[in-house]
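input
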Amino acid sequence: MRFTPKFTPARLIVGAVAAASTVAMAVTVMPAQAATSAATSVVTPQTWAPAETAAIHPGVQTYTSGGQCTANFVFTDDAGNVYLGQAAHCSGTGEATDTNGCDSGTLPLGTKVTFNEGGSLLSEGTQVGSGTLAYSSWNTMHAVGETDANTCAYNDLALVKVSASDVAKVNPSVPFWGGPVGINTTGTATGDKVYSYGNSSLRGGITLLSPKTGISLGDDAADGGWSHPLYTLTPGVPGDSGSAFLDAEGKAVGTLSTLGLAPLPLSNNIGDLSRELAYAQQHSGIPGLRLVPGTEPFEPVL
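output
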């Protein structure tokens, strides 16, 4: 069940690693290397807001029909539109335990999303911008009739098109850490360090609690590279859903999707960004969709 109507919880998943061991990778996904080339080969024409003053950025809170999540990365396309990523389940209409994007209810494209700062359980804080849901892996998998179990379970990316009047407020750098400097296409090994920035309303707007470091628990080849289980110093909590994860080189490796209950209690699973973005590039109908690198250098200070 949903914890509260004021935020969207991280999806709960039981036995995610074990269950994934019986299925294969989707054949409809573009090769990750090709996705990376397409995602980083074109220089975007925007002049980004300064990182220190930008109101809209990775880590900003998003509100979709009252549900609160955390934005991950900034994307653009050949037309110069700007998108902010969030988890597809942030616009889900079912329960927190609904983790299969191929059969879970979801809001339609065009749904309004707001970008907020300082949201808490008492209020949604201050709205700093808005946009509309332009792509959702869940909606898309419904439309194309996706059947691959791993894709259905872990493809959890949505894109919010930033309103034209708010584009000048955007900076693509991950707060505190900087980057991303590109896209990770090789996954993670046991013990690899990862870096994230959550912004759950459960923290009451205390930004000192947002930066997190963690370690990978090693990738399970049985899920086709679609997810990366990990532990962070404090686990991702409801409201952190969708937040960005960087690897030790500052490359975008994934987006927070689920909270594991078993067999790895208090772990988190992140969806693999290279595969999520490749799926969007193939099916979204957005020409030239790509990740925008941060304007600030990656600095793993912790």
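quick obs: Confidence is low (pLDDT under 50) at residues 1-44.
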